[in-house]
C-alpha cells in the first residue's frame, strides 16, 4: 500500500506541477491580452488626438483660404471701381478734346491728292525725318571663296531665231499655275 501511496503522491505532485504550469500559462496569456488591450486603447486615444489635430488644421486652413478669397475679391472690386472711375474720366475728357479738322485732301499711292475720297489714305500723323539705311555687312569668307571659283560657261551662238522661239520666251515671263504651264529649256 505504501507503494501505491508513493505512486499516488508522485502522480499528484506531477499533476499539481502541470496544473501550476497551466495556470501560469493562462495567467501569462491573460496578462498579454490585457497588455494588448491596453496598447490598443492607447493607440485609439493617440489616433483620436491626431485626428482632432488634423481636423483643427483643416478647419484653420479653410478659414485662411476663405479670408484670402475675400481679400482677393475685395481687391478685384477695388480695381474694378478704379477702372470704371478712370474710364468715366476718360469719357468726359474725350468729349472736350479738340478734334482734327477734316482735310480736303488725302494720300493715294503715296502721293498727295487735291481731294479726299474714301479710296485715299489720311495724312500720315508721323514720318521719320531720318530715312532708313541698310546696315553694311562685309561679304562672308564663303562668298569670297565661291566668287573666285566661278567658271565661265561657253556661249553658244545661235545664228537664226524663229518667231516661235520669241513666243516661247514671252511665255516664260507670264505667270502660269498648275502642271500645264511648264517651262521647257
Task: Summarize it.
By secondary structure, the chain is mostly helical. The chain has helices spanning 2-96, 141-149, 163-173, and strands spanning 107-108, 111-112. This is (raccoon dog) hypothetical protein.
Task: Characterize the structure shown.
With 185 residues, the protein is mainly α. It has a domain of 92 residues. It is 62% helix and 2% strand. A two-stranded antiparallel sheet has the order 1-2. Strand 1 and strand 2 form a beta hairpin. The N and C termini lie far apart (144 Å). This is (raccoon dog) hypothetical protein.
What tags apply to this protein structure?
two-stranded antiparallel sheet; 3 helices; 185 residues; 62% helix; mainly alpha
For the biggest sheet, the summary is: 2 strands, antiparallel
Measured by DSSP, the beta-strand proportion falls in under 5%
How would the global form be characterised? elongated
The number of helical segments is 3
Poorly predicted parts: 162-171
SSE order:
HEEHH
Round the mean pLDDT to the nearest integer and report it.
77
What's the helical proportion of residues? 55-70%
Strand order in space, largest sheet: 1-2
Biased composition (Basic and acidic residues): 139-148
Protein name: (raccoon dog) hypothetical protein
InterPro entries: CCDC34 (IPR045323), CCDC34/181 (IPR025259)
Region (Disordered): 1-21, 58-77, 133-169
Amino acid at each position: 500500500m505504501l507503494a501505491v501511496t508513493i505512486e499516488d503522491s508522485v502522480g499528484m505532485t506531477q499533476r499539481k506541477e502541470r496544473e501550476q504550469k497551466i495556470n501560469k500559462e493562462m495567467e501569462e496569456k491573460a496578462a498579454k491580452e490585457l497588455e494588448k488591450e491596453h496598447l490598443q486603447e492607447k493607440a485609439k486615444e493617440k489616433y483620436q488626438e491626431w485626428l482632432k489635430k488634423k481636423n483643427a488644421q483643416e478647419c484653420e486652413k479653410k478659414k485662411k483660404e476663405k479670408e484670402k478669397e475675400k481679400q482677393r475679391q475685395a481687391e478685384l472690386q477695388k480695381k474694378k471701381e478704379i477702372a470704371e472711375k478712370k474710364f468715366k474720366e476718360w469719357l468726359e475728357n474725350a468729349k472736350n478734346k479738340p478734334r482734327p479738322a477734316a482735310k480736303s485732301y488725302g494720300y493715294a499711292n503715296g502721293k498727295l491728292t487735291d481731294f479726299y475720297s474714301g479710296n485715299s489714305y489720311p495724312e500720315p500723323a508721323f514720318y521719320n525725318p531720318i530715312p532708313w539705311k541698310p546696315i553694311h555687312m562685309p561679304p562672308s569668307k564663303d562668298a569670297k571663296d565661291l566668287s573666285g571659283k566661278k567658271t565661265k560657261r561657253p556661249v553658244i551662238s545661235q545664228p537664226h531665231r524663229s518667231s516661235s522661239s520669241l513666243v516661247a520666251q514671252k511665255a516664260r515671263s507670264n505667270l502660269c499655275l498648275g502642271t500645264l504651264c511648264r517651262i521647257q529649256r
